[in-house]
Here is the input.
Amino acid sequence: MLTHHRKPVCLSVVSTDLPFWSVVETAATLYQKDRERFHLLLSEPVISDRDPVTVAPEVATLPAKTSRLLWLEISPYRVIMTMQGNGQFSYRHLWERGMYGISRYWLQSDSLGANSQMRLRNFTRNLTLIGKPLPEHVRLEYELWAEKVQLGRYILNLDIHH
Here is the structure.
């Protein structure tokens, strides 16, 4: 039987070799699929498409508001993260401990039929899932690759507060 719990979460991604980091703190719904498989659904808080301070006052308009839906499928062996919902950009990552996975990014255009897809590889160095019976912490350490060029090393941390 599918059970769910509403929990506060903190999701962060940081690069260990590039000046990149991102943190999202919000509430999420945790669905227990079976003993070791969970789905976590969260809405990233609304963000602005542009900064109104950088636009000249005579042409400034209210920034467009976008919200993104993040869906994580979590198990001790695999994590899949899908982002959708802002209309311009989506992605899906598949991470498995000690294996190469796929990271796909989709860019939508205002023109009909002008959607593009970029596909990269990732190598999962470490995947740690802590917490029983419900997960409390997930840590992923991975590398992102385009062909034979490494695009950085990253750490994804997910804290689920109880």
Remarks:
- The two ends are 21 Å apart (CA to CA).
